[in-house]
Write a structure and sequence with these properties.
With about 325 residues, the protein is an alpha/beta fold. About 40% of the residues lie in helices and about 15% in strands. The protein is built from twelve helices and eleven strands.
Length: about 325
Amino acid sequence: MPHKHNTDQRHHIPKMAFKVRNWPEYEAGLRRRGSLTLWIEDVALNQWQTVGPSGQARYSHAAIQTTLMVRTAFKLPFRQTEGLMASVMTLMELTLSAPDHTTMSRRAVSLPVVRQASLPDGPLHVLIDSTGPKVYGAGQWLEATHGAKSRRKWRKLHLAVDADNGIIVAHTLTDQDDDDPSQVAPLLEQINLSIVKVTADGAPTYARIAAHGDDIEVVIPPRLTAAFSGEQGLLAQRDRHLAMIAEQERLAWQKATDYGKRSLVETMMGRYKAMIGGRLRARGFTAQQTGAAIVIEVLNRMLAAAHPDSVHRKPVIP
């Protein structure tokens, strides 16, 4: 019997409704995301290229990064990206050339990606989580072409997001076998600003966060079988969380600690897969790390151009 046969008799949870309070600004920002002026800036054009002794163009890191960001934002292959950038240079009447597809592919392996999005000022409330972008390799090709079964392969993208505006402030790309607690320290070390609060799921440990600062407030849901430790420092926060959960239940603890803000990092991961896709396009791991850094810059620039101010709208009960 089809699953949809008894769908009318099943209990349905209505989808949460939201209202965007800054719709005119948000709509204008969404249109600006498709503008080439958002991705090709004058700063990059001023240092686009130099000419070598034999007359061959030598492209700067800013030129390669800008070209790769255009490719990522518009989901283009290398050759189409080369044609788009060449047409832009022609329309702007610039005496510049566009990097060819082989140059883009070769330089992406060792490109030092420069963070261009403005980071927030002041102490940060950091949200940490991870997702698994898929890698289309030889195993997936064999399965798609010949039906041969193979083990799925993916990478793990670890994100640290600012809870106030959703900007990604740090990231790491690791192999699928690396666990989440091992990436807490590398994420926090990338943040030069002071951190007042860290919210994560049950994977990161208090000890790894304590190495970055003893005065950081840590919000990690304890396990159902967790016991009191009686220790001092950050582990004392864990005991306080356990006491509050035992006294007021877990939902009250989530509300008191503002644990619901962790959904913002999950929202960012949803943006990543919706706008960019759930698959890494590069084959080598070094190029995949560069691609992940480019994706982060694209997402941050998209969010800076259009950020919705949405609030939950209560349903009207007739």
